[in-house]
Write a structure and sequence with these properties.
The chain has 83 residues and is of the alpha+beta class. The chain is built from 2 helices and 2 strands; from the N terminus they run ββαα. It has one domain. The chain has a two-stranded antiparallel ribbon with strand order 1-2.
């Protein structure tokens, strides 16, 4: 839908201006899909990384001290709070 009106600048000249009101607001659909794919890939890498850290720390009994147990608890918290 477009509206047309005449603009008069101090009586010197007249200009016809057409306004197009069918413009999109916000990011394009392609940008939304690209952002969604990037976020999905980073989510998968984050989950895999946290699981690998937990497997390594839990699998090696000689490094199972309080610091590494804390790191495992942080990994579990990250997996729970990813959403």
């Amino acid at each position: 839908m477009s509206k047309e009106f005449t603009l008069d600048t101090a009586g010197l000249n007249q200009t016809n201006v057409t306004l197009n009101q069918s413009y999109a607001v916000g990011p394009s659909q392609g940008a939304m899909y690209t952002g969604a794919v990037i976020m999905l890939v980073s989510l998968i890498f984050e989950i895999c990384g946290n699981i690998l850290v937990m497997i390594v720390i839990i699998g090696r009994k000689y490094i199972a001290n309080i610091i590494y147990i804390f790191v495992v608890s942080i990994c579990i918290d990250n997996i729970i709070n990813i959403g």
